[in-house]
């Protein structure tokens, strides 16, 4: 059994762990990152469908509104290292970025791998060592201080300070399988129950399924809980073999999951023509039906809906596709109007944690000092990234939280180490 030691030991080489390592090393500490997979940043490499939505260009106050459960917790981390500093740093690492719709920031190369490699390079140049295939199984504590960690293969590594950056419990194939919760709990931390956030939703019946693969752009989806509107979002969505997915559905899913857990009734309502209010759309329908009276209903629908949705619409509004436009009654036109502005799906479940883009819940932030990311329970222990009970909408917010908390945890642990003792030896 090999015994080693370092100033700061980081568990997990995801975005939070990598940036924590680079920053701690820049502040003068010796740093080892332990990563259980055979390469660092597996999840980061698949973010944004391989393009990596690094952050969002929103201003701080707007940015914070995208977080739950307590956005204020992130303020000190964001004041220390926010989107502009991140993008400047990436630019210096030869990863120029571009802002897209909704303030979403991507690398110009459109490659998440480039972001991962840049972070690894930054750490390496600052002297960080990354050990892969190194799965931490235990934290060793004595006299109220963290002393070392034990790996699955029995190896022990001493450290003055440990940062847990093990991520959540979604997409476990990337390495984030909830180990951090178990480690944190073993030293007395409270774990807020975890549940999926940003997760596809299951629909009752077969209507959504019959449009599997159809993606819609520029639509508004609203979430209704017990017949009251809770939230809405504008953008892109997709019908799948189980129901609804895509960015705007994922954004609404957090509140939907909570409501489903409470056994409340949940509906998603699609407005397929958000640019037109009901009166304007009705006027347009009247004009279409009058001008093209001899055409069949299906021809009218071609100008209004994607092909895959046409038979579905005819079914829902109960108008034969062959019916001449001139014979469509006022009641039928109102049914069509309802379909276009208020296409409703009853939600009866959601996909599991494994398929969630992020995990809600985690290490309770009440037990973490937001100014340093230090544990309030155990000296020398720090947390960063998704392992904490913070989660956000889609749009680059989750990665920024991982980067900002990682930076702060790395910097604070290095300063704490420098203030508290001399280095105890090098790996
Ligand atoms: C498909 C998908 C797409 C996404 N796209 C985006 C996006 O475009 N923009 C955005 O903002 N967010 C996106 N996210 C969310 C974002 O990827 C995460 O919030 C972010 O990766 C969290 O970073 P982290 O460093 O905290 O954890 P992770 O990235 O999960 O990294 C944790 C690391 O810890 C390691 N680890 C775990 N346990 C141990 C252990 N016991 N010992 C050693 N190592 C361990 C893991 O192997 C892993 O490498 C996406 C998520 C998914 C699943």
In short:
By secondary structure, this protein is of the alpha+beta class. The protein has helices at 15-26, 60-64, 75-80, 83-92, 112-126, 179-186, 247-261, 278-291, 297-302, 310-317, 330-341, 397-420; strands at 3-11, 31-34, 55-56, 67-68, 97-99, 104-107, 129-131, 136-142, 145-151, 156-164, 191-197, 201-203, 215-225, 228-239, 243-245, 266-271, 343-350, 358-363, 368-369, 374-375, 381-383, 391-392.
List the bound ligands: flavin-adenine dinucleotide
Structure annotation, total helices: 12
Annotation, overall tally of beta strands:
22
Q: Give the structural class.
A: alpha+beta
Fourth-tier CATH superfamily name of the largest domain: FAD/NAD(P)-binding domain
- Distance N to C terminus: 15 Å
CATH fold-level name of the largest domain: FAD/NAD(P)-binding domain
Helix content: 25-40%
> What is the alpha-carbon Rg in Å?
25 Å
CATH-scheme architecture of the largest domain? 3-Layer(bba) Sandwich
The main β sheet shows up as: 7 strands, mixed
Q: How much β-strand is present in the residues?
A: 25-35%
- Mean pLDDT figure: 95
- What's the shape? elongated
The CATH class name of the largest domain reads: Alpha Beta
- What are the low-pLDDT stretches, counting only 5+ consecutive residues below 50? 423-427
Describe, in plain words, how this protein is organized in 3D.
The chain is an alpha+beta fold. The protein folds into two domains: 3-196 and 360-420, FAD/NAD(P)-binding domain; 200-351, no CATH class. 32% of the residues lie in helices and 27% in strands. It is built from twelve helices and 22 strands. The strands form six sheets. Strands 1, 2, 7, 8, 9, 10 and 21 form a seven-stranded mixed sheet that branches. α1 runs parallel beside α5, α1 (15-26) packs parallel to α12 (397-420) and α8 packs across α11 (330-341). The radius of gyration is 25 Å and the shape is elongated. Mean pLDDT is 95; it is low at 423-427. Flavin-adenine dinucleotide (FAD) is lined by residues 11-17, 34-37, 42-44, 46-48, 52-53, 135-136, 165-167, 170-171, 175-176, 179, 357-358, 385-386, 396-399, 402.
């Amino acid at each position: 059994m090999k015994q080693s030691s370092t100033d700061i030991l980081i568990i997990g080489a995801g975005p939070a762990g990598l940036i924590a390592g680079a920053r701690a090393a820049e502040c003068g500490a010796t740093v080892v990152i332990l990563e259980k997979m055979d390469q660092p940043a597996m999840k980061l490499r698949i973010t944004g469908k391989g393009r990596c939505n690094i952050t969002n260009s929103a201003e701080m106050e707007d940015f914070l509104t995208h977080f739950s459960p307590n956005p204020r917790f992130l303020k000190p981390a964001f004041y220390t290292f926010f989107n502009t500093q991140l993008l400047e740093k990436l630019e210096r690492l030869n990863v120029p970025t571009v802002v897209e719709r909704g303030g979403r920031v991507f690398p110009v190369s459109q490659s998440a791998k480039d972001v991962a490699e840049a972070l690894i390079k930054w750490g390496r140049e600052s002297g960080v060592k990354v050990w892969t295939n190194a799965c931490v199984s235990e934290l060793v504590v004595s006299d109220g201080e963290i002393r070392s960690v034990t790996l699955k293969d029995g190896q022990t590594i001493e450290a003055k300070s440990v940062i847990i950056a093990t991520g959540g419990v979604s997409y476990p194939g990337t390495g984030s399988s909830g180990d951090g919760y178990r480690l944190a709990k073993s030293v007395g931390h409270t774990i807020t129950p975890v549940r999926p956030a940003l997760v596809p939703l299951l629909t009752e019946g077969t209507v959504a399924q019959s449009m599997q693969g159809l993606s819609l752009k520029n639509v508004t989806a609203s979430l209704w809980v017990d017949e009251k509107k809770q939230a809405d979002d504008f953008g892109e969505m997709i019908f799948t073999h189980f129901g609804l997915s895509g960015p705007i559905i994922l954004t609404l899913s957090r509140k939907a999951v909570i409501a489903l857990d409470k056994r409340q009734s949940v509906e998603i309502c699609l407005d397929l023509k958000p640019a037109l209010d009901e009166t304007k759309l009705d006027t347009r329908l009247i004009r279409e039906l009058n001008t093209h009276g001899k055409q069949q209903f299906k021809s009218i629908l071609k100008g209004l809906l994607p092909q895959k949705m046409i038979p579905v619409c005819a079914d829902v509004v109960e108008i034969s596709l062959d019916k001449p436009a001139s014979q469509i009654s006022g009641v039928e036109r109102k049914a069509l109007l309802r379909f276009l502005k208020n296409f409703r799906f009853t939600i009866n479940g959601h996909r599991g944690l494994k398929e969630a883009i992020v995990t809600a819940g985690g290490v309770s932030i009440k037990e973490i000092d937001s100014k340093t990311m230090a544990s309030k329970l155990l000296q020398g222990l720090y947390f960063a990234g998704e392992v904490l009970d913070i989660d956000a909408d889609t749009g680059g917010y989750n990665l920024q939280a991982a980067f900002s908390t990682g930076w702060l945890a790395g910097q604070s642990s290095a300063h704490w180490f420098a203030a508290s003792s001399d280095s105890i030896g090098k790996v």
